[in-house]
Design brief:
Order of helices and strands: EEHEEEHEEHEEHE
Structural class: alpha+beta
Mean pLDDT: 94
Low-confidence stretches: none
Distance between the termini: 67 Å
Bound molecules: zinc ion
Strand content: 25-35%
Shape: elongated
Helix content: 25-40%
């Protein structure tokens, strides 16, 4: 079977597209797995216990025909019938909407926390708020830090402050809070 095999079909008015998952040839005894997508981004992964080396197009089309669509729990959209999915019967649109609400809540909480901390620092005379992006000297992902100073810090001062934590300054912005 070609690794780039693709198949498109219409199920209950929804245009579906199937491709072969790389797991099918990356792992032994995995079988052949498809990733089937809806235009709104929802994905399901039907699998058949036939090795990728010997799977035929008819097997793959049979596998595509096992895909079922059901009505979303919350709206009229159709979504994959997939008990293993973390979408729990919600369509991709409803799932993303709910996830964005959750993310906004987290963001709001963080904003409140930062505001409180800034007020506390101002009371102690630390009126310069440096927002610094830095990366670990020993490797790793960038991190964002909030550091407060009594006097306007130069890049050197910020760098010296971070050196103790084994961090290198990548970029920074200083805000005078009062
Ligand atoms: Zn929905």
């Amino acid at each position: 079977m070609q690794k780039n095999w693709q198949y498109k079909w219409n199920l209950n008015g929804v245009e579906l597209k199937a491709e072969i998952s790389p797991c099918s040839w990356m792992y032994d005894n995995y079988g052949t797995q498809l990733s089937v997508t809806e235009p709104n981004g929802a994905v399901t992964y039907p699998i058949v216990k036939i090795p990728f080396e010997s799977v035929l197009e008819t097997d793959l089309i049979t596998l595509c025909n096992t895909v079922e669509l059901v009505k979303c729990n919350k709206c009229n959209n159709l979504t994959f019938k997939d008990p293993k999915s973390n979408r729990k019967g919600d369509c991709e649109v409803c799932f993303m909407k709910e996830m964005n609400i959750e993310l906004e809540k987290i963001q709001k909480k963080q904003d409140i926390k930062l505001k409180k901390q800034t007020q506390k620092m101002i009371k102690q005379g630390f009126i310069y708020h440096a927002i610094v992006s830095a990366y670990p000297i020993n490797g790793g992902d960038d991190i964002i830090l909030d550091i407060w100073f009594k006097e306007e810090p130069t890049k050197q001062i910020i760098a010296n402050t971070l050196k103790k934590s084994k961090l290198t300054v990548c970029n920074y912005q200083v805000v005078k809070e009062v």
